[in-house]
Write a structure and sequence with these properties.
The complex is a heterodimer of chains A (222) and B (192). Chain A is an all-alpha fold. Chain A contains seven helices and no strands. Chain B is built from eight helices and no strands. The radius of gyration of chain B is 17 Å and the shape is globular. The chains are: A mainly alpha (222), B mainly alpha (192). Chains A and B meet through helix 4 and helix 5 of A and helix 6, helix 7 and helix 8 of B.
Chain lengths: 222, 192
């Protein structure tokens, strides 16, 4: 039971999130209306993505220090799950944008930042595929990972703050905190963030285990 | 050089005069972007591995990457000014604050070249696939490109440099970040 407690916690949090997201009370607001429920899905996706990509960065740095293939495995799988979260974030965001801003895609600093981040990590996977040998692959792609992460951070965290954005909290728009994230929503939102992040970590753990088994299988056959 | 000249000429033939600042600016930076990708991408690709071995014995990796970056900076800067000249000649010059625009050119092309030098080093280790440089470089170049475009747009509209320190600071910070990352990370690429 000791090892499983956080998985049970993840499930509980996510069941609670989904149940509350569809049945809980939300404040009635202009334009947003019921779409505000998307807050429990869209925003945690980005938090989850940033956490996972940070894990990827940390393991890439550790790999450069130690040259252990185990660390590279975590780095690449964290990037995989992070990109999955990013794609889910784009989909939920796109649906939300259609219903509130009137278009699937708008020219907004944060949207473009997200798209560029996806492109950078897809480039990371392409780079990995062009190496036949795993040590060199791990080393060079770790360098690119660090490079991409730092520039991504600049792009999605700093540049949007300097320009106008349709997102709350930017360019004169009030942040969610100021008036519409009332206490009832906060009771769901924070558990939702924790739940989705934990789910990401769980996915990561499973994928790392699969990758390790596959590598070991390859070694025993060879 | 010939690349810049012919691209500007093609742009001239297809647009004649551009008076709209947004288009003028975007086209200028896109031409510069592709020219510098073409120029800087070659910095590691064109050299044979035996020459790399020679460098490896001769200098430390930090010295090598810094010198490559400086060389590429000069090259891209020259390209940028050539483009500026021919652009003015053919397409017309609508800039109101020339000094700011030159600063934008300086910082923008320095950033392009240092980033591309590093990406070229990464790509050269991944085999001789020329498309890889573009694939790897464009996503990471976009923050730089967008802040350069925004800064030079302000210059076109005649916003004085003193009123636009934010743009300078962002571009400078991006330059510093890229060069520092290259300085720290390059030895790991170079080792094998």
């Amino acid at each position: 039971m000791k090892k499983y407690w956080w998985k049970v916690l993840t499930c509980t949090l996510l069941f609670y999130t989904v149940a509350m997201a569809f049945t809980g009370d939300v404040p009635a607001l202009d334009i947003l209306h019921e779409t505000i429920r998307n807050l429990y899905f869209h925003v945690p996706m980005w938090f989850g993505m940033i956490v996972l990509l940070t894990v990827s960065l940390v393991y890439s740095t550790k790999y450069l220090g130690s040259n252990k293939i185990r660390e590279d495995r975590v780095a690449v799988e964290a990037a995989n799950v992070g990109v999955l979260y990013g794609i889910l974030g784009l989909i939920t965001g796109s649906l939300w944008a259609k219903n509130t801003w009137g278009a699937w895609w708008v020219n907004d600093a944060k949207l473009n930042g997200a798209a560029v981040t996806m492109l950078a990590y897809l480039a990371y996977f392409i780079l990995r595929n062009s190496f036949p040998e795993s040590q060199r692959k791990a080393q060079i792609s770790a360098v690119y990972n660090i490079f991409a992460y730092v520039l991504m951070l600049v792009f999605i965290l700093i540049l949007p703050r300097l320009t106008d954005s349709l997102h709350p909290g930017n360019g004169g728009n009030p942040g969610f905190n100021t008036y519409d994230l009332d206490n009832r929503m906060r009771l769901v939102f924070y558990p939702a963030v924790a739940g989705w992040i934990l789910l990401g970590v769980w996915l990561l753990e499973l994928r790392v285990r699969i990758a390790r088994l596959r590598d070991e299988d390859k070694e025993t056959r060879a | 050089m010939l690349y810049v000249l012919s691209t500007v000429f093609v742009a001239y033939l297809s647009f004649r005069q551009i008076l709209d600042p947004a288009t003028w600016n975007a086209l200028f930076w896109i031409i510069l972007l592709f020219a510098s990708v073409n120029a800087a991408a070659r910095s590691f690709m064109q050299e044979s591995s035996s020459r790399h071995l020679y460098y490896y014995m001769l200098v430390s990796p930090q010295e090598l990457i810094l010198s490559k970056i400086i060389y590429n900076m000069l090259m891209v800067l020259i390209l940028a000014f050539i483009e500026y000249f021919f652009y003015t000649l053919f397409i017309g010059n609508i800039i109101q604050d020339h000094f700011s625009f030159v600063i934008a050119l300086l910082l923008g092309s320095m950033g392009f070249s240092s980033l591309l030098t590093m990406i070229s080093a990464i790509a050269s280790k991944a085999g001789q696939n020329p498309a890889l440089v573009a694939i790897l470089a464009f996503p990471v170049l976009i923050p730089l490109l967008i802040s350069s475009i925004r800064f030079s747009r302000d210059a076109i509209f005649g916003l004085a440099l003193s009123a636009n320190t934010g743009g300078v600071v962002i571009l400078l910070a991006l330059n510093v970040i890229v060069v520092m990352l290259a300085y720290i990370l390059f030895p790991y690429i170079w080792r094998n």
